[in-house]
Specification:
The structure holds 2 protein chains of 2 kinds.
Chain A lengths: L2 H10 E12 L6 E12 L3 E5 L6 H8 L7 E6 L2 E2 L5 H11 E4 L11 H10 L6 H11 L15 H13 L5 E5 L7 H16 L3 E6 L10 E6 L2 E7 L1
Parallel strand pairs in A: 3-8, 3-9, 6-7, 7-8
Antiparallel strand pairs in A: 1-2, 1-4, 4-5, 9-10
Chain B lengths: L2 H14 L1 H38 L4 E6 L2 E3 L2 E3 L7 E2 H7 L8 E15 L4 E9 L3 H4 L4 E4 L4 H6 L3 E4 L1 H7 L6 E4 L2 E9 L13 E5 H8 L5 E2 L1 E6 L5 H15 L10 E5 H44 L1 H9 L4 H37 L8 H28 L2 H7 L1
Parallel strand pairs in B: 6-11, 8-10
Antiparallel strand pairs in B: 1-13, 1-14, 2-3, 4-12, 5-6, 5-9, 5-13, 7-10, 8-11, 9-10
Helix pairs in contact in B: 1-11, 2-9, 2-11, 2-12, 9-11, 9-12, 10-13, 11-12
Classes of the chains: A alpha/beta, B alpha+beta.
Chain lengths: 235, 404
């Protein structure tokens, strides 16, 4: 295939997992968390990955987020094979291309909202960090909370700060791990609305969850069970 | 992450745990201060010993009774009084010993001196007129013991400046030693020495009087002080004295000599070696406290890494490389020890100022130990910071994230 074809694939296809297997431990104690798992995600998608606990979706999230590497198989991210990178190279990929939203928010309690949002920019020596952080907080509707500590914010507001932190680097992918897991219904809707809005602006978002409320918001839903992709549902 | 941001992040986290940071710093502070103060005290005492011994005169030789060998039995050094007044006469022979300037035999005892006003216990030496020359001393008032005093066994006494002051006695006064009256005929000029072996706290009487009335042992001598004609003739004076005494003691084999001769240079180097050993000992104890401070830093950094596992995981997820985290934690440890080290220098210098003014202990602070102490503190911090920092850098991001 000509080079132009490869370029086109890069534009359409942000993520390609090819026969990913992840085994923890060895010998008798070996646990197969993912088995021959393949998945592609196009740019601009809002994908929900559903599955009960122990299904392998956390492992999937770690591999998608470049927090861990597969035992075998290949992972193409934005046209680059990231399945064999070392820790430092993976750190650079995470910093430049992926924004994380966690169930536990993972905000640093001693830092104000905008200092928390600024964090990933510090690891890429960006200029004008305060302005970028304020823009991101504006996008999630927290312009008036920039100097608040996480403890002074509600759960929903904290998660929105976390989303701002994921956004601030202008990443190719936002990866949300149970973003509504620690929130009440109203805050959950709030956070899902923000994610949906971001997707409508063209961001690729993957939400990993077992919350059935999330699926209707997603444009596509895949289910994972026993380390395998069991079915896909288009919304 | 740029170094500036890493430093900023490290400092922020230290300021976030103020009490803990201060307490950790204290360990280093006291270690550095102890090193500076003890080396300062050692340096000062070495200086003062050197000054004191130099004040005795650098062309001074001392002959003391050596080990004896009789009937196949060795006696230890000084176990017998092998020196006599006839040895003194022999050494005074300028024909055979042209490089010996003065010869002063000494017998010594600790006596209680009683004046009209007071009483004072001090070392009383019996000697001859040459004592003054041999010890390079001068009179501040009155006269010293004369050869006539020695031959006539007069009851006269010469006092050191401190002794005269404490007795409240002046030239012409009468004082008693063992109920025997002595007339004060002179006061020695002060040497300004202090403490142990104070050269201003002593008294001198004619050796014959001392042998007869105070110490006893007529004709025998505890030691003989010699002075060479100049500093350059010490070597030949030493050889002449050695030859003469071997001859008069009828000893063929020099290794069986029943006396030994030391020069003030030898005494000086021995004393310096002793104070140096003491200084090293003290400084080692202080250095160990510095080491303990360093272990304290490592301990706190390990606690910090464990406690901040979640933060480390988050930073990794956001793109911190293992190198970024390693640097951050080493900088935190290095900052703790550097701050502790600088405050330790301040404390050590303050001690060097306060101690001599309150405890009457001299302290001499030189730049080298200060620099070495700070350098060691920083190295200790970095070394002990490396292990916790490696732990932080090696944490797997997913494990660390799960920890919170």
């Amino acid at each position: 295939m000509p080079v132009a074809g490869a370029d086109r694939r890069y534009v359409d296809e942000l993520i390609r997992l090819e026969s990913i297997t992840k085994i923890y431990g060895s010998g008798d104690a070996a646990v197969v968390a993912l088995s021959d798992f393949s998945l592609t995600v196009a740019s601009g998608e809002l994908l929900a990955v559903m599955g009960p606990s122990g299904s392998g979706k956390s492992t999937l999230m770690n591999i998608l987020g470049c927090l861990d590497t597969p035992t075998s198989g290949r992972y193409w991210f934005a046209g680059e094979d990231v399945s064999r990178l070392n820790e430092t190279e993976l750190a650079h990929v995470r910093n430049r291309k992926i924004g994380f939203v966690f169930q536990q928010f993972h905000l640093l309690p001693k830092l104000s909202a905008w200092r928390n949002v600024e964090l990933p920019l510090l690891y890429r020596n960006a200029e004008d960090r305060r302005n970028l952080a304020l823009q991101a907080l504006d996008q999630v509707g927290l312009r008036n909370r920039i100097d608040h500590r996480p403890t002074q914010l509600s759960g929903g507001q904290q998660q929105r700060v976390a989303i701002a932190r994921a956004l601030v680097t202008n990443p190719d992918l936002i990866l949300a791990d149970e973003p509504t897991g620690n929130l009440d219904t109203a805050s959950s809707r709030d956070v899902l609305a923000v994610l949906r809005e971001l997707n409508e602006e063209g961001r690729t978002i993957i939400v990993i969850t077992h919350d059935p409320e999330v699926a209707p918001v997603a444009r596509r839903t895949v289910a994972v069970r026993d380390g395998r992709l069991v079915h896909e549902v288009a919304a | 992450m740029s170094l500036l941001h890493t430093i900023e992040t490290g400092l922020r986290s230290l300021l976030g745990h103020r009490l803990r940071s201060v307490l950790t710093t204290l360990g280093i502070l006291f270690g550095v201060a102890a090193v500076i103060a003890t080396v300062g005290i050692g340096q000062a005492s070495s200086d003062s010993v050197t000054a004191r011994i130099s004040s005795l005169g650098t062309n001074l030789l001392t002959i003391t009774p050596g080990s004896t060998f009789a009937g196949g039995v060795f006696g230890g050094g000084g176990s017998a009084n092998t020196l006599t007044m006839s040895d003194v006469t022999g050494l005074l022979d300028h024909q055979n010993a042209p490089d010996i300037q003065a010869v002063a035999p000494v017998v010594q005892g600790r006596e209680n001196l009683v004046s009209a006003a007071s009483n004072w216990s001090t070392t009383v030496s019996g000697s001859t007129a040459d004592w003054l020359t041999a010890n390079s001393r001068t009179m501040s008032s009155g006269i010293f013991i004369s050869t006539a005093d020695v031959s006539k066994r007069t009851q006269v006494i010469v006092l050191g400046a401190t002794t005269a002051l404490n007795l409240g006695a002046g030239v012409g006064d009468l004082i008693t030693v063992k109920q025997i009256p002595f007339q004060v005929i002179g006061i020695l000029t002060s040497t300004g020495s202090q403490g142990f072996g104070n050269q201003d706290d002593l008294a001198v009487v004619p050796i014959t009087t001392a042998q007869g009335e105070l110490v006893g042992g007529v004709g025998s001598v505890q030691r003989i002080l010699l002075s060479a004609t100049s500093q350059s003739t010490i070597g030949s004076a030493y050889l002449e004295a050695d030859q003469l005494l071997l001859q008069t003691h009828h000893i063929a084999n020099p290794s069986q000599a029943d006396f030994s001769i030391t020069t003030s240079t030898q005494v000086l180097s021995t004393a310096q070696a002793v104070t140096q050993t003491l200084t090293i000992l003290l400084a080692s104890v202080a250095a160990i406290s510095l080491l303990v401070g360093g272990i304290g830093v490592m301990n706190i950094m390990l606690v910090s890494v464990t406690e901040r596992t979640g933060e480390i995981g988050l930073r990794k997820a956001l793109g911190a490389t293992p190198g970024d985290l390693f640097r951050q934690f080493v900088i935190e440890a290095g900052t703790l020890t550097a701050v502790g080290g600088l405050m330790g220098v301040g404390t050590g210098l303050a001690a060097g100022y306060i101690v001599p003014r309150t405890a009457n202990i001299a302290v001499t602070i030189t730049p080298l130990p200060v620099l070495v102490a700070v350098a060691v503190a920083v190295v200790v911090g970095l070394v002990f910071g490396v292990y916790p920092a490696l732990r932080a850098a090696r944490l797997a991001p997913i494990e660390a994230l799960r920890a919170q």
